[in-house]
Amino acid sequence: MNFDPINIALSSVLILLGTALIAPLFRKNQKFMITFSFILAAIASLLAVAAGVVTVEGALVEKMVLPIGLPDLPFHLRLDALAGFFLTVVGLLSLFVSIFSIGYVKGFLGHRSVTSLVIFYCLFIAGMLSVVLADDALCFLVSWEIMAGASYFLVIFENEKADNRKAALLYLVVAHIGAIAILLAFGILAGIASGGSFSGYTFDAMRQANIPPHWATAAFALSFFGFSAKAGVIPLHAWLPEAHPAAPSNVSALMSGVMLKTAIYGIVRITFDIIHVFPWWWGAIVLTLGLISTVMGVLYALMQHDLKRLLAYHSVENIGIILIGIGLSMIFISFKLPLLAALGLLAGLYHTMNHAIFKGLLFMGAGAVLHATGERNMEEMGGLIHKMPWTAAMFLVGCLSISALPPFNGFVSEWLTFQAFLLSPSLPNNLMKLLIPLGAAILALSGALAAACFVKAFGVTFLGHWRGHHKPHHLHEVDWTMRSGMLLAGLTCLGLGVLPTMFINWIDNIAQQLVGSTLSLSATQYGWMWLTPISYERASYSGFIVFIGILVVVAATYLLLHVKPGAIRRSAIWDCGFEKLTNRMQYNATSFAQPIRRIFGFLFSIRERVEQVPHAGHKAFPKKLHYYLSVRDRIWKWLYKPVIEASFWISRQAGRLQQGHIQTYLIYSFITILVLLLFLR
Amino acid sequence: MDISLETAARITSFIAALVLITSFAMLAQKRIYGLIHLFAWQGLFLALNTAVVGYIADKHHLFISSLLTLGLKVFLLPYILYVLIKRLNIRKDVETIVNMPTTMLIGIGLVIFSYHLTAPVRELSTLMTRSTLTIALATVMIGLLMMITRRNAVTQIIGFLAMENGLFFTATSATYGMPLVVELGVALDVLIAAFIFGIFFFHISTTFDSLDVGQMARLKEDEMNE
Amino acid sequence: MNINPYIIEFLQVAVVIGLAPAFVGWIRMLKCWFQGRTTAGLFQPYRDLRKLFSKEIVLAHNASWIFRFTPYLLFGTAVLAGAIIPILSIDLPLAATADVIVLIALFAIARFFLALAGMDIGTAFGGMGSSREMMIASLAEPAMLMAIFTVSLANKSTSLAEIVQVINSGQMMLRPSLAFAFIAFILITLAETGRIPVDNPATHLELTMIHEAMILEYSGRHLALVEWASMMKLYLFVSLAIAVFTPWGIAVKGSLAGLPAAIGFMIAKLGIAGLIIVLIETGLAKMRIFRVPDFLGVAFLMATLGMLSFFILD
Fold this sequence. Notes:
The complex is a heterotrimer.
Chain A: H1 5-22, H2 30-58, E1 62-70, E2 73-79, H3 81-106, H4 115-133, H5 137-155, H6 162-194, H7 203-208, H8 213-231, H9 240-246, H10 249-275, H11 280-302, H12 307-334, H13 338-373, H14 384-387, H15 389-402, H16 409-422, H17 430-462, H18 480-498, H19 500-515, H20 520-523, H21 543-561, E3 568-571, H22 589-592, H23 594-599, E4 605-613, E5 624-632, H24 634-655, H25 662-679
Antiparallel strand pairs in A: 1-2, 4-5
Helix pairs in contact in A: 1-2, 1-4, 2-3, 2-4, 2-19, 3-4, 3-10, 3-13, 3-18, 4-5, 4-10, 5-6, 5-10, 6-8, 6-9, 8-10, 9-10, 9-12, 10-12, 10-13, 11-12, 11-17, 12-13, 12-16, 12-17, 13-15, 13-16, 13-18, 13-19, 15-17, 15-18, 16-18
Chain B: H1 5-28, H2 32-57, H3 61-88, H4 100-124, H5 133-149, H6 153-175, H7 180-208
Helix pairs in contact in B: 1-2, 1-5, 2-3, 2-6, 3-7, 4-5, 5-6, 6-7
Chain C: H1 5-34, H2 44-54, E1 57-60, H3 65-84, H4 100-120, H5 124-155, H6 160-168, H7 176-192, H8 211-214, H9 220-245, H10 258-283, H11 292-313
């Protein structure tokens, strides 16, 4: 066997499939099964990373035909720079999460069997990797279904809770509506590409086909709908905040971190690669939906007090940011501005990588908290930084990254997106010139709101005092495997933030292959320290100097002030001299978001209710006050409810066909056959 | 004194910016006297703009219409409104139907829309004032927006007058002003309209004890209620 | 004769660190004069800082490392920003580290940690301050970006050195778009640096404060660093406004002759900026917290009108 990247990638998928097969054999010894299979998963992920890195680095395009599949319709695999990049994204996070899982999944021992978790975990990663590798519609859809099916079983893992079952069902329904749309899109493309024979199902045939504009638009609309449903783009996001928190945290990390990215991969693959010639308004649609998802995602997130739901809503936001970059790129490329298109595309892809890593990190952190406290509700937490210093520090790194603060990675990609926005005046269309800058303002708003949200998430979870009624007795730091999973992700966040030029140089080949222009000539011409996306005069950023600069000044100040170490006296909280401060008086998740909830309240349907328990003496001194708050998603009422009701209505109508008599059913079959024969005459 | 066309265009666009800012300030203003002051300021900028255009384009009748604007819109009409408010003793705060940030966003949308609308004219026109045309049109639309979003009849008339300002501005920037006769006629119309409004308000307020135009719905013969 | 740019860089950082308290002292002096009070002098902030540095730190039992690290970080980011904004000269070796957007993000990282520090002790006041601070920051951000957008349209750059260079070379007089952006920037500066009408820097009434509420639990040298950093932040925002909108008089290429003039211009402009701030602060009352969105809405409107008028009028 030779060491071509595509062989390595294939072997990675095979290892995962093999692990899924072998794991049940050890189900008697669960502890061993966990260690064994997650280590194998980590190795497979590492192989995928290696294959991806080499492919992107060398701008290779490798193909392979597998002798499996339907008769005469074998599976085609292809590894180009884009596939290699997503292979790396999936592999890298799977590597960290697999290490984390060794410790995390052991937390379930004694409660339930984790065999199914292990099997579907491996299948899930294998599915994601093969989605990226697929080079024909058949292989793509089969992999897509493996991925969706495996993740369904992972969401329903803790199936004793009714909420989880409901979430999983919703997820399954939306995923399949999306899959149907994607299938139809491929159907259109393949139908035009093959012209009578079955050969058009490969992506190669579709690329070469001359697709009429209206059919291309139909295919784009269907596939974008399908992929949006997977990515959780608003208004198709409703399943996401239900399903992601329901899954075990290591799976949530993968779902939010990389499964959503396969949808991004699909969008880029279909628009940039397969259809590759499109009008500007496709880009405008992608951009608009991206902006809506960004700002609504973060606002929904702010209203949450369940840590994992909050993170899930932030996935909606970040998918929006990625789509903004891609949408801008699509607009630029349809106006024949390849350099700017490259900037937008790379900003989007950079954010894809960043979001995978920091969202994975944050979900791992949430998992560690859940592992230690058994709590997901932030209102019941607080002060964990003292008991779980490692988790707190790593979670903080994740918070800083997702809030787009330098010198971490989230900032670089948002900065690049802003630069792409700032270049929109070079578009020839007058209306776009005036409207696109407003999009930049929306992105700025959501960036700042994200910072507010993560001050809340970190502050309420890790700082202050324990807010709940009953403090758990044995709060403890998590074990070393979980810590090292988080640590690796944290270091990656920092590395991607401090050395953006290296990363840009690396992913530049994707832009070369897809939009025919590179950024590296201008972006990195002043050396590895300076990132100058278009030109030095235009804008420049040095994450390295920001990082080192802050470190040096902080260290210098600290040292200067400690020449004569002044006394530090520990004492009780001052609090302006008030006494009797209790833990329940702290700001919590709900109160922290109150100002923002009030300002943006018109976007939600909010119900507030205060109940008084009257005091025996006088009405003015109630004994207790109960405060109820419910924040609901308006889109649920406006979009989903009618659809659900309509589908129930249709099923009731269809139900009338069901008479229960075997003769009636035979008549149905007979009529069907007659009609079919008439058509096929 | 010789001013280059370039500089003149700069000056007119700066004045246009000031007109735009007064339009938005009127949208944002929450006190009725402040609104009148802003209206007066807008008139002043318009007069200034007309004078500048008249000087550059060498159209002397524009000086007359500039003076007319100055007298009518900066002094007379605000004074009439001022007296009206005093006499009728109405509430000093502006009641809005739509909240301020939303109104602002709609205003921004209107500016973008009028930019889109005037694009063909801008390409054909060779006048140095062509770039201010967008703002002139936007002023008209914002005046209308003000009439729509305000509850009180006095604020509505200010919206109406602001709209007229916009039309006047449009005429100046699109064709260096209408013929003097037309402008005199329009000025007279506006003045008369203001008087009629004044008499009207007086009757409305004596009939309903309020200048809330929502009350006028009661004038409708509604058989269900009778 | 030219000076090594590194020396100017060093000098500038020293100026920022050294003069920031004097600038705050100047504002307080002016304010006293306007309100008919006797002043404590230009150097009172220095005396306050010295006093705080010599005091011991009283730390709550449950203060974590975040609480202790934040003052140093605030100071660190302020110093770094001071090395980036062209205050004395355009030719700074570190100027390319950050464009305007990165600079704003540097302040954002300081704010992020300050808000966390506010929540660390677990008092109601701290949480309230953090919550409000983040709300105001979120709403100021789009206005800020719009103002930057307008400036970058006019200069075709977001790099500070480049902006200063373009505006300094003339041809930028009387542009409505920049005037709009300038007004927006002033409003944002008031919000971001916690001045009246958004926050009251002198208040000690718990329910009206934002910045003060977050730093209530600080004492000793921690408090000194926090105070000093916030003075520097005010100084830097004003310097940023000067650099972006009125950079005239700045030293162009590290010439020795240009430097004293640059310092003179800077002091004069800061004096005027102080006057403007005091005029606004004495003229306006502090707003209710839920009026602040309207205030920042106006800032956003101004910045957007600036952007639009660039396309429409320029």
